[in-house]
Every structure is written in structure tokens, then in C-alpha cells.
Specification:
alpha+beta, 11% strand, single chain, rod-shaped, hypothetical protein PF0899 fold, 5 helices, 4 strands, four-stranded mixed sheet
Amino acid sequence: MAGVEKIKEKILQDSEVKVSEILEKARLQAKEVLEKANRKAAARVKEISQKSAHDISEKKRIINSIAELEMRKDILSAKQQSIDEVFDKALERMNNLDDSKYEQVIFDMLVATAESGEEEIVMSESRRSKLSADFISKANKALEAAGKMGRVKVSDETRNISGGFILKSQGVEINNSFEAVIRLYRDEIEPKAAEIFFRV
């Protein structure tokens, strides 16, 4: 029996050693798996962090680009508004000329644009009533001196224009309203004005 006990004891000892070895091996494997998982997790965290940093950087770049674009758009709008104001002020100044200067501008425009010298001048009601009594006779003399008929007359018809006039002849109209003149010159002048404004 003593031999059986010794064998049993030996088996138990061997088992304990084996269990200890297995436990140690399992502990080492678990440690290795854990370290590997930690390394993998750290790498993934770093990757996500870098991706997040890249994403954040990309979002910042996009936001900055949009802000810069909006700023340029606002500057462009402000410059365009300034150009609009320049032309609006020019129209306002033309409409607010005192009567004698206004009449001189109308006179010069009429002599320059009348083709036959037999046209009718269509004006706004308020401006037509302010023409001097001898305006038409002076204009016709100037037209005759320029080799034209010299039979221009003021029309009974009026138009809703702020200033200037419309020349009518045989169904054809030449729009010399200040709005039309400003619009015509604006097309010519605006690119130069814009060049000056946009250089700044």
C-alpha cells in the first residue's frame, strides 16, 4: 500500500507541477495576448487620433477656405456697391443741376444727337415746364448752323424720366434720358472704375 501511496503522491506532485507549469504558461500567454492587444489598441488609437487630427485639419482648411471665399465675396459686393453709388450719385447730380446748367446740358445733348433737326423733344412734365422761352429758338439756330433743318419742337407728350429727354422722329426714338446716358457710359466706364477699385 505504501507503494500505491507513493505513486499517488508522486502523481499529485507531478500534477501540481504540471498545473503550475500550465498556469504559468497560460499566464504568460495571457500576458502576451494582453500586451499584443494593448499594442494593437494603442496602434488603433494612434491611427484614429492621426485620422481625427487629419480630419480636424481638413475641416479647418475647408472652414478657412469658405471664410476666405465669403470675405472675398463681401469685399467684391462692397466694391460693386461703391461703383453703383458712384453712378447713382452722378445721376443724382445731373438731375439736381440748377435750371440754367440743366438747360445748357439739354441744349448740348440736343445739338449733338439731333439727326435731321426736325425731331420732337419728349421730356418729363416737371422739366418741360422749366425750359426758358427762347430755348427752342436757340436750339434751332444751333442746329441750322450745324447744317440741319432747325425745326425741333417740344412735344406735348411727356414721359416718366428723371431728367434728360427723348428725341422722336418718324416713329424712331433716341433715348437721351439721364438714366439711359448714365447706363450707356456706365458700360464704358465701369470696367475702368472696377479696375481702380479692385486694385485696392
